[in-house]
Every structure is written in structure tokens, then in C-alpha cells.
Amino acid sequence: MMTCTRRPALLALPAAAVLALGACGSSDAPGGGAATDGDVEGAALQVAASFYPLQWVTLAVAGDRADVTSLTQPGTEPHDLELSPREVAAAVDADVLVTLQGFQGAVDAAADERGGQGVVDVAPAADLEPSPGTPPGEDAAEDDHEEGHEHEEAHDQEGEGHEGEEGHDHGLEEDPHFWLDPVRMSSVAEAVADGLADADPDGADVYAANLADVQAELADLDAEFSEGLATCDSRDLVTAHQAFGYLSERYDLVQRGVSGIGGEEEPGAARLAEVAQFAEANDVRTIYTETLLPADVAETVAAETGATTAVLDTLEGLTDESPGDDYPSVMRADLETLRQGQGCS
What fold does the segment set 142-174+229-342 form as a domain? Predict the structure, then answer.
């Protein structure tokens, strides 16, 4: 078991060095990548985060004052999380539980068992928007499909970057993927800092100082994305599933996901044909697959349209396939992938 002990002297490091701490941890702890194993020297709090983006931002804000573990194992789709008895106990017994209410039912149940005590729900700070809806499956009625398609086209014409087909995917009434928008992530970091300070008032100054570093890093990311995606040959983003709505909205792209918001739904022939037609009509040259989802659906669309494929990481969890070892590095890798795939100068 690899441990990652961070000593108080590290608090004086520059922001980038502090944020890089999220890359170290115990390989067998829930969540891997940024997890610690309970051996952080002098840590005041035991914190459970529901999945990787919340684990990263909590560890970056907490610094030495907390052990932060993720309840979602590396390589696991967080949408489908089931907790073992040990993981339920970790969620219930931790001093603080950081979660996104409504995203993972098993974690919501653990939060309920705590009676709301010590629970930091970041959903309000993330300013979630309604789910873009479920693309029609093979057995969807044609009239439902046409109605949803018309609604979707209206959204696209407005440039909102979200699809508008009716229905909600995977039981998710709101799009959970806030972390792919650095501006929303910055608001969440502030909510986490407030929650940690409530649980550990003696550490409030530490959390405030670390928060300033985190928000500076996220502001840099936002500026890099804004500049890097300002001038592109194509603003139409065809992805394996509808995870990039907030990113698209922030940087003036139009997302078209092959699968729905949850990613597990198998799209029907009608949906595949619709996306292929959209790609051809808009001269989309790159179809994006993802690290945590099978690539076959996106590859099918690419084959039908003559487009190439490239991999975007949704950052729902780090794996050996991730193009970086922490949130900022993976986001920057995604930016370079988008710049190449969208023809940005």
C-alpha cells in the first residue's frame, strides 16, 4: 500500500504544486488517484468524497488537514455506484461527506443515514441545469423522436450547447457534469471550503488560503479554454454521450451526444442515423469517444461519416488510460484534443 504523507511545509508551495498533491495516494483506497489511506500526519478530518472530481477539489482545499478518500473506485462509472458495507460505513462515519445530491443513489442513502450532519452537497453551488434528455432508442415511437428532434434543433439554433429532446436519462433530472466547466468547479470549491470550515473551525484560515490557490488554478484553466477554443473550424461537438453540455455552453460549442446523459443507454438505429446525418451535414471531422465508455457506438458513427475518432476524458474517475494524473492535467489534455479535433487555431 502506498501512502502519501503531506507535511505542513508544503502549504508554502505555489498553487500548482499544492494542486498536484491530488495525484498521490493509496492505490487500493476507494477512488485511487487522489485518495489517502488514513495516514496523513496530523490530519484533523476524515472526509469521504463521492467520486473523483469532488475528491480532487476537497483534497486541494483541505491540504494537510484531512484524509480524503473517494467512494467510487477508479475506472468505475460513478452513475452506477453501488457501495460495499465497508464503503457505506466510510460514508456514514466520516467527519464530512462531500457529495452531489441526486447523482449517486447509494451515496444519497448514506447521506440520509447521517441525518444531514456533516454533509456538503455541492449541487447548489454547481448551478445544475435540467438534463438534456434521452436520445431515442431503437424502440422509441417515431412521433416522439420527431418531436424531440425538433426541440433539439431549436436549442441548437439558440446556441445553448444543450440538447433538448424530451424525457430524462438514467433518472437524472439535472445534468451532473459540472466539473467539466472550470467556472462551476470554482464555485464548488468555495462550497467545499465552507463545509470543511464548518466541521473544523480551527482550520478555516488554511481552507481559505488553499481555496484561493484552487480558484486561481481554475481561473487559469478557464482562460486557457476560452483562448484555445476561440477560433475553430467547427463548433459542433459530437461525443459518445452527453457529458459535455456545460463545457460546450461555456465555450460556445454545440454538443450532440450519441448516447444520453448517463452514457449506458444503447442508442437505436434511428439515433445513430440522426447523429451521422448531423455530422455529415455540418462537416464534423472528429467523433469523440471516452475513457470510461465502450468506443463502438462513436466508432460506428465515425465509420459511417468518414470522420476520425479521438478520446475525451470525462474526468469521472482516473484510470491508467487517463491522459493526466490529476484534474488540471486531464482538463488540459482534453483541451488539446478538442483543439485538434475542432480545427482550432
Answer: Rossmann fold (3.40.50)
